[in-house]
Amino acid sequence: FDADLQYEYFNAVLINERDEEGNYLELGKEFILVPNDHFNNLPVNISLSDVQVPTNMYNKDPAIVNGVYWSESLNKVFVDNFDRDPSLIWQYFGSAKGFFRQYPGIKWEPDENGVIAFDCRNRKWYIQAATSPKDVVILVDVSGSMKGLRLTIAKQTVSSILDTLGDDDFFNIIAYNEELHYVEPCLNGTLVQADRANKEHFREHLDKLFAKGIGMLDIALNEAFNMLNEFNHTGQGSICSQAIMLITDGAVDTYDTIFAKYNWPDRKVRIFTYLIGREAAFADNLKWMACANKGFFTQISTLADVQENVMEYLHVLSRPKVIDQEHDVVWTEAYVDSTLADDQGLVLMTTVAMPVFSKQNETRSKGILLGVVGTDVPVKELLKTIPKYKLGIHGYAFAITNNGYILTHPELRPLALQVMSDFNSILVENKY
């Protein structure tokens, strides 16, 4: 790492952009783009990758620049892969620091507000490759001191945590003051799968929260630990990592007796604490709770701080994989990609991904995840590998991922065609 490193890279938003005097913008040098029929005639550069940085991050942050610099060596890897297998489409590296290197290089266009909200670390392929499946209980302080902006920041923090959960994860949200308030009362005492429908349902209920009374954190912690224990003993949920996310503006105690009862000495449940607001009076207690339970503490003062601070917990949950050198390959469920639509309509895709880490001793001891590498695979390419002539008239084949997602099956096709006829009912995953 070189804090003073100066390096000009191809920024996917700024490439080919000029200022009023006709000069190329900084990080926006000339980048040759040519329509390519293999990529649905999108203008791409098959000789180079380029880099997208989320709008809420500084393009020339030293951590970004250093990561972009050493990941330049992926250009040759991407090009060699494509030469060796011309059926490949998008190849990419999502950094734990937030930047996204993509091959072939392509220009990204901001929305009407000049924003690109895409953050690779929120994508299912990144989360599944970087972390193990997890059970999560989110505790939100709704005592009187959380009124106004603090409660707004807390709700946004919860929403950002939900963004980082995938179909392999299970969760619930409890608001607390003198009493416990399940955000969805019908799901009292249990966890639900973090699929898209459930997450959206809980987001809608977040708007109903309001602040009043006194925060009784001990009651909330007892409830969270009991729920996780019961859920784990029944064999439900992820049967893997467990965590409690605490979102509050302070804690008057360390609650060590509760942790001693439920979590020590094994510390199977990690505690992640998010201090809301600029005050640091109770920061020490929250730091202690996180550190004593293999978690992480962070302070969120403004809405702009939310996303980057929430991401920190993913780095912690990825440590066991890195330390154990687990290069697990994951496949996502099938999704629709609008950028490669062909004559037959939208294209069903799956993503194959795996974690990336250095083999240095420091990486092993500290568990430093560098990011996730992945490539998109059209489901029709998988179908080509099925030797249909060997199946016979009564035979059929289906593809299922290691996570249990069915990618293709004869009985799914009529349903898929019916769903695709109604564009509004499809989740279109558009990276650009």
TrEMBL record:
Write out the GO cellular component annotations. voltage-gated calcium channel complex
Q: Which residues form the VWFA domain?
A: 135-317
Q: Which UniProt keywords apply?
A: Calcium, Calcium channel, Calcium transport, Glycoprotein, Ion channel, Ion transport, Membrane, Signal, Transmembrane, Transmembrane helix, Transport, Voltage-gated channel
Source species, domain of life: Eukaryota
A molecular function GO annotation? voltage-gated calcium channel activity
SMART domains, from UniProt?
VWA
Q: Which InterPro entries match?
A: Ca_channel_alpha-2/delta, VWA_N, VWF_A, vWFA_dom_sf
Q: Where in the cell is it found?
A: Membrane
Bilayer topology term = Single-pass type I membrane protein
Q: Gene3D superfamilies attached here?
A: PAS domain (3.30.450.20), von Willebrand factor, type A domain (3.40.50.410)
Family of the protein in this entry: Belongs to the calcium channel subunit alpha-2/delta family.
Name by which UniProt lists this protein: Calcium voltage-gated channel auxiliary subunit alpha2delta 3
Task: Give the source species.
Answer: Anser cygnoides
- What are the top taxonomic ranks of the organism? Eukaryota, Metazoa, Chordata, Craniata, Vertebrata
